[in-house]
Amino acid sequence: MLLRPLLVFVTALGLFGLVPPGDDPAPMTPTAAAANNATVFYYTKTKNWPATYLHYAPDGGSWTTVPGVRMVTACTDWVKATVDLGSATGLQATFNNGSGTWDNNGGSNYALGTGDITVKDGVIAHSDPCADGGTGSGNQATVYYSTATSGWTTANIHYAPAGGSWTTVPGLGMEAACTGWWKKTLDIGTATSLKAAFNNGNGVWDNNNSADYTIPTGTTTVQNQKVTTGAENPCATEEPDTEAPTTPAKVTANATGTSVVVSWDPATDNRAVTKYQVTRTGGTQGTLVTDVGSTVWSDTGLEEKTSYTYTVKAVDAAGNTSPASAEATVTTGEKAPEPAAGTPLGTDPRKDPVYFVLTARFYDGDSSNNRGGSQHVKSGNAANDDPMFRGDFKGLVDKLDYIKALGFSAVWITPVVLNRSDYDYHGYHGYDFYKVDPRLESAGASYQDLINAAHAKGMKIYQDVVYNHSSRWGAKGLFTPTVYGVRDSQWSWYYDEKNEGFEYDGLTVEPKSGKSYYNGDLWSTAEPSGNTCVNWGKPTGGRSAEGYTLYNCQWPSPTSGMFPKTYYHQCWIGNWEGEDSRSCWLHEDLADFNTESAPVQNYLIGAYDKYIDMGVDGFRVDTAVHIPRVTWNRRFLPAIQERVTQKFGAEAARNFFVFGEVGAFVNDKWNRGSVNHSAQFFTWKERKEYSADDATAAIEQYDYEEQLGTGNQPTSTNAFLSGNNYHTPDHSQFSGMNIIDMRMHMNFSDAQNAYNNGKDSDDSVNDATYNVVYVDSHDYGPNKSSTRYSGGTDAWAENMSLMWTFRGIPTLYYGSEIEFQKGKQIDCGPTCPLATTGRAYYGDHLAGSVTASEFGKADSASGEVATTLDQPLVKHLQRLNRIRRAIPALQSGQYSTEGITGAMAFKRRYTNGSTDSFALVTVTGDATYTGIPNGTYRDAVTGDVKTVSNGTLTVPAPGKGNLRVYVLDGPGKIGSDGPYLK
Predict the structure, then answer these.
(1) What keywords were assigned to this record (predicted)?
(2) The pTM is what?
(3) What distances in angstroms separate CA 869 from CA 537, 865, 872, one per listed residue?
């Protein structure tokens, strides 16, 4: 978050991750006989079609003739079709009713593999939902399995009777028993018990921490790893759910070019609404039915100048479906030229160190889009020929090789949406959330071009996003306030003459005013229709700095009545650790969205769907603490997961990296005792149900968690080794949001202090190995300093050595590799030139050319950028990145300090499949490790080899900023000695 100085996975990772039962062979591998056949099961209850057809094309082959193959009844609510794929190993599929109504996965088609495949309300899984578990004369075991916390949309039981063989992975599909419970009755012959594990059909398993579950005959429940034998039917007291949800209301459809955003208010249900069905008619493609989990749907790739009609139904867990909503009709416009969409890289984000840039201040690739704005002269920027909007996407594309040469494989960029304020170069004053700010784009260097260029180099783009607030002028397409203004002798300099044919975009100069920051569309002397601002146009009794008369409604304010409560909150924050900090304005420049309102939720979800579709790799979430956690967990985080899953698949969704800024600027574990305002709090799901109304639920959650206090919060061992062993992390209660490590950040005035503070909080984070760790940023230095870090080169080297080897994802603010602007005030708004601040233009240090084909090494460099790359911290950083990239334990490993002496010494291990990486690390000081595995350890810094035969290894102090990384059966020395690593 940036303030002017006037004022301050729906797709869960599963209970125990992507690991099948320990004694099961080769999961998810089809047998040779079935390798080229697919039996596709389709769920019919919610569609209620009289007939269902499978229209498909084997991978690399031709599509069947429309409507395709008629599917046959498989069991209650399911139909099926078995297809011979020949030599193909999968198929593309859509479904229809034979009369022109289609389910094509929202235009993406369904990508299906081989074997048994289910498609249920848009969710693909793998099992036979109609398989008979056996109800013959043998012993019976009835198993109920709870998915209430995991959020799985289907469940399979994979089992072996005692003394018998395991079922073929993924096992048998369980039947929905009641809300949150699945059931299967199994015939286990003469056995009196069975071993079992559960999965969601897509490779996510609950195998009881690799121990599997032991289940006897009779009725057994399995809930959150607790096995209850001889159990009562958990659904016995629950009446069958036969009540349908209410009909969705206020359905709207808005077109931009050939794309339409459909949104509606949430429906209600006696249990819970789980899905919505959006039906589109119009055009030449027939009727389309799409299942979505949120209350907004972005429909793209439509025909030009064509009328489309949308209706929406709500669906509950029992498959009860509401009547269709009222119709919303919209006509598309002309098709705008659109670059090809990108595809996220989709790999574990912990592998990717992050370089953070303010795009407008990094490198100027195209001077034609430079803009100074209304504060150009006042700020002193004009005197320096340094417009606030100077850097751009073209400049970033041009210098991706510089970032790669440093060793970074992820770039965090400031918000890209069109901004509108007096000083908006940083991007946090969003105005049109559906439009990329043209001051950042150029011909051949659009935002899409940047994403594609980064991906081509194996680099990720993390987009900074803002859900909490808009600019003071509101959000275009949602609500924009009209202010009072009179163009008299006092104010004509400020209020631009109206130009009905001109639309503000921040870049284009309006011909009447000669300004790119035109405001003629924002004000009116006549009171507008529907005005709610109190005392419209009446003098306040005050005067401006110039002595001009001030009027009511002349300036946006939450308490003026100018902003309707449907769209914006209507108060100022009074207590930064109170409930009001989640429901009031931070600053006059940051109009606080009513994020508990469906129209606002729909607007933001629809906007950020656009950027997900472009292939960004993750979101850095600004001001996350100022939105209730329950709103994140109910609305925004599931919407992100759903969209990524739909467009790019479950694996891409699992690795789509969301990390939030939870501004806890204190040195204690819990932010002044308030759990609701502590960073780690946002990594967890909710622990109870709250009111269906989001605003009420936010208050209920705040009160409930504050009353429980800090001592009753969930804990996790996900970041910690068990002795010397890596264990499969439990992400069942993960919210979907990771965090910036604010506690380490606040304590980085000294590396050891940051290290000790970081460790102290890790048990309260769902998985601290995903924490984003940095020393300073565009907002603050350590200890909430207003200046960029100035601890000295040796201290920087020590900080980097710690960040690049300790748990978490190391992140560097642009220029810190040469101590750029050290000690300078980070931000002073327009009261001083940007060139004197921590947000100064960096491009002068990047002039010249640089190429890099691998991370952490420049192939060639000339000009000033060659000088930059020759600086001591750059050399240090490059080698750290090469070492970290070569040792998996330093990327994704859990850690422990058990049996270790040393100020900053720890052991880390990561085990996955054939990978087993174990490293012993000490930063600056000496260390002794006891109780470690025997074997040969090689130091990645010096190449030194130590053979351990008695479980003990002692390492002398390497010196400040230096470190030792002894890796069991490791590769030895990585890179060449430098100024610190030697």
Answers:
(1) Carbohydrate metabolism, Glycosidase, Hydrolase, Metal-binding, Polysaccharide degradation, Signal
(2) 0.86
(3) 58, 6, 9
